[in-house]
TrEMBL record:
GO term, biological process aspect, one: wybutosine biosynthetic process
Pfam families linked: Radical_SAM (PF04055), Wyosine_form (PF08608)
Regions crossing the membrane: none
Name under which the protein is recorded: S-adenosyl-L-methionine-dependent tRNA 4-demethylwyosine synthase
Lineage of the species this protein comes from: Eukaryota, Fungi, Fungi incertae sedis, Microsporidia, Dubosqiidae
PANTHER family for this protein: S-ADENOSYL-L-METHIONINE-DEPENDENT TRNA 4-DEMETHYLWYOSINE SYNTHASE, S-ADENOSYL-L-METHIONINE-DEPENDENT TRNA 4-DEMETHYLWYOSINE SYNTHASE TYW1-RELATED
Domain of life: Eukaryota
Limits of the Radical SAM core domain: 3-95
Organism: Hamiltosporidium tvaerminnensis
GO function terms (MF aspect): 4 iron, 4 sulfur cluster binding; metal ion binding; tRNA-4-demethylwyosine synthase activity
């Protein structure tokens, strides 16, 4: 983590610039000393140490202990906190196969993620399908590993079935992304997952600078997360 990160955050906040920070959960000392930001993300690439070693290829031998410590630290942060899960089809997602081996695999994958979410109690869990950036020998990924939006939805449903106090709040179909939110962000049947940037300061809890989610961003909306005030361009297929 950048050694002058806190000074940089101070400068941003002084200029009323919002701060979104993503960490891979491998630097607990730096994360503990981190000033509160507008929204803090923790990438959770897998729900168990064996899978994390295969997927994340961590630098440290105590990578799992570092991740767990960062999760515990995140739980104590005042600002909005997010677990970010990137789904890679056939690797860290659940499958629909009915054989016993795949059923056990599904239970292990979902159970691992559920356990970590319960431990860290993040405000949000953002689940996004992996973006294919071209084949490389190191990754071995192909378009077959890119989930459809419905795959991400199904995974999110399976996840919240094992959790209390969380529901699917938003979706962004063209980004293949689903947002699960803690129900403390739901008041009178309305979600408040948006951010009031003018209201934010480091002394507030995340819920205190949140504002109502627009209808077009809600899960199940006709727009499926696309802002109707923007123009969408569909790329024509080359024959």
């Amino acid at each position: 983590m950048y050694v002058h990160i806190n000074k940089l955050i101070e400068l941003f906040h002084k200029e009323k610039i919002s701060t979104f920070l993503v960490t891979n959960g491998q630097f607990p000392d730096q994360m503990r000393a981190l000033k509160d930001v507008t929204q803090l993300y923790l990438s959770i690439d897998a729900g168990d140490p064996v899978s994390l070693r295969e997927i994340g290829r961590p630098l440290f031998t105590d990578y799992w202990e570092r991740l767990l410590e960062c999760i515990d630290i995140l739980k104590e942060k005042r600002g909005r906190t997010v677990f970010r899960l990137t789904l890679v089809k056939g690797i860290n997602d659940e499958t629909t196969d009915s054989n016993k081996e795949e059923q056990e695999r599904n239970e292990n994958i979902l159970g691992g993620y559920i356990s970590l979410i319960k431990r860290g109690t993040p405000d949000f869990v953002e689940i996004k399908g992996v973006t294919f950036c071209g084949w490389t020998q190191d990754s071995g990924l192909s378009m077959k590993n890119v989930p459809y939006h419905n795959d991400v939805i199904n995974f999110a449903i399976q996840l919240i079935n094992g959790l209390e106090g969380y529901e699917i709040a938003c979706e962004h179909e063209h980004s293949c992304c689903i947002l699960i939110a803690n129900t403390k962000y739901k008041k009178n049947q309305k979600w408040y997952t948006w951010i009031d940037f003018d209201k934010f300061n480091e002394d507030l809890q995340g819920i205190e600078y949140s504002c109502e989610t627009p209808d077009w961003a809600l899960f199940g909306s006709r727009e499926k997360g696309f802002n109707p005030n923007e123009t969408r361009y569909q790329r024509k297929k080359i024959k």
